[in-house]
Design goal:
Bound molecules: S-adenosylmethionine
CATH class of the largest domain: Alpha Beta
CATH topology of the largest domain: Rossmann fold
Largest sheet: 10 strands, mixed
Distance between the termini: 9 Å
Strand content: 25-35%
Strand order of the largest sheet: 3-22-4-19-18-5-6-8-7-17
Amino acid sequence: MPTDGRPQHTGRLELTWTDKDRRLLSFEDGSFQWADRGDYRVSEVRLLHDVTAVGEVGTSRARDNLLIRGDALHALTSVAKIPEFSDEYLGKVRLAYIDPPFNTGQAFTQYDDNLEHSIWLTMMRDRLEQIRDLLAPEGSVWVHLDDVEVHRARLVLDEVFGPASFVTSFVWRKVDSPNDNKVSVTPDHETILCYTKAPGGGAAFARKLDESILNAYGSAAPDGRRYRDRLLKKNGKNSLRADRPTMWYPISGPDGVEIWPIHDDGREANWSLGRRRVAELERSGELIWKQRHAGTTGSKWVPYTREWAPINPVRPWPTIWTDLPTTRQAKAHLTALFPGVTPFATPKPEQLLARIIEMASSPGEIVLDCFVGSGTTAAVAHKLGRRWLAAEWSRATVEAFVLPRLCRVVEGTDPGGVGVTEESVPVSELPGQATISDAAAAARLLSAWADDAPEELGMSSAQLAILAKAAKRLSRTSTRTTSHWKGGGGFRVLDVGPSMFEEEDGQIFLASWAAGDRLAEAVAAQYNFDFALDTPFCGRRGDERLAVIDGLVNDAVVDFLLDWLPQGQLLVVYGTGIDPYAQERLAEMRRGSSLEKIPEAIISNYRQVGRRSAGLNWASDFLESSQAIA
Ligand SMILES: C[S@@+](CC[C@H](N)C(=O)[O-])C[C@H]1O[C@@H](n2cnc3c(N)ncnc32)[C@H](O)[C@@H]1O
């Protein structure tokens, strides 16, 4: 307890909400239910079932682009826990962009956005934790939101990723036409919160290409490289020797005469570089001498430094993005893709995603979006040569938008977005060098004259009006689109499988589908075994072999399995019925091996893991508060 009278402070800065320590179950109809951390319904690893493949796919489904139909919670758990997928995704996702429901209180046609804050925050926290585990050490997460939850989401992100991992919030202008005139303020923007997995990782983002930087380099070397020469003497009248005495020293000119930095008015100035750097420039031929004529006193040598134009002219990105297409244009793209269908309510423009993907990932790296909506992130990642993993829980949205859109991308028949350039071209041929804007200016001038025909033109108002009309016709444009994206690649569609459990009167049973090989596959997934049928075994995990018996496991079964078990391996057996003597026998015959009954063993394993993770939180809270007190 401080003795100087200062109040004692306890606790830490965090956002708290109702049932923050619990987890959340979501259902396809948009409803939710709270669950404890150890509840099998939030912990179970669901199987991923193949639905279809589009375009070119490889032999390993986990290495292909994946569209997963199902709740993000299950989709992300499966890719993080089933070894076939976790080998490809865990700690390897370079960029996660999510555009979750904003909790705006509006009811959209495609999904219910009216979640209560605590539900929304829990849903986000849980999925952000999963995303964090999937991200590569140099990966980043971008969370697209509006004013409703952005401030709360930032605190949740601070909690999950750490405040030092916050890069910035980007502002995207989402409208390009005046908003509802009946209210005084309407939001024109949405916010994208950006965090990196490691603190300070934003420095590695690709910077903005800006060719105009090259304009400052007015000269060209014989090999075509552009450069500019800058005076070595420090510019600015107030740069004086007295301020930086070490920058006042003589340099030998080409004729051997010593040159000092002196202002035109005779005051002693400074060089802009120190002696050592100037010596380096002299050696590399980048200290340039030019002769300056100084009236009657003849000419004198003046030193310059040569600066080469950057090979890659880039500058930092601004955080306010007003130069991108808006929601209206994103919807127009969807309308062009699906004429006659009511466009998806909240699509983002492909160019917005292209900017993010190009800033934060490179070709071949994995881009994740587990709220993929109409499929924008997947479509852009595909066109930009990234691998992608997308999830969407609404089957209707997948069927109406994501799947057909991505098929068009693979076929190369997507009519808009990234990969298509649009330019205005004149409807009719313009004469000579004239441009569309010349024709428009002529039309304006002629119609002004037509109103009040100047005498010296010798034309009537009617004649001038005809000419104005002709000029106007020449100024009319149409849009010419050129498609650079020619299609290619492919993807797989997977379904999140149903639960392997069923519940009746508070009792948990194995679901009727969970039998035979499918039961074996489901059990392997729960315990991170590589599933491989190799009778009588069905999985491997290090030096352990898995056997799942849909029936009673007794001494005879144990002996049979042990007969097949290679030397030096351990046996992990799950049976739907077990004889306690068989457990003892296995422990005796192969120490370290185990035999447990399902589903009880799986359910209790989840409970223990849930208790441990709650315990760990408690322990870290305790540690933190005791350190604060110390
Ligand atoms: C704002 S939209 C995404 C729009 C998308 N960025 C686009 O450009 O089309 C949010 C999407 O997340 C989906 N969604 C909501 N909760 C989900 C969950 N728990 N798992 C997977 N998808 C979910 C909704 O069905 C909706 O399609």
